[in-house]
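Example record

One chain of 143 residues, shown exactly as stored in the release files.
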Amino acid sequence: MNQDNFNGQKYSPAINAAAITVSEAIVGNIIDLLGFESATMIINFGLSTASATLAVLLEEGDDSGLSDAAAVADADLIGTELGAALNGPTEGNSTSKLGYIGGKRFIRLTVTASSLTGDGFVAADCALSNARHDAQTSQVVSA
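Predicted structure tokens for this chain:
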């Protein structure tokens, strides 16, 4: 069977849609990478604002509750956290991505606003890629 994006990936909600408030971190769901070699966070920002500064942090660990959480080293990222963030004048919707190729089992995304005028929302999904074994044929996405 040829591998394609549909059969070679699994999707998990990384951040359930949430309103953004200044200085309050939106801490995402813990994603289990068991059976996969890499992951990509797809981050969706919805803003009705003229200016926003939103930082993105990706953490990793081997504990299922991420009690051992540590920031992911730059060498284990595809792209940068700064590149996936929003910084400055913006309006409407935008999407960014951040890749992970580290060796830990669990990852988690956090978004924090240091400035925001108006209203904003964030949501993110995680595409787990390069399945080690079976094809991922289910169309159902769950936490």
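Notes: The first helix runs from residue 5 to 8.
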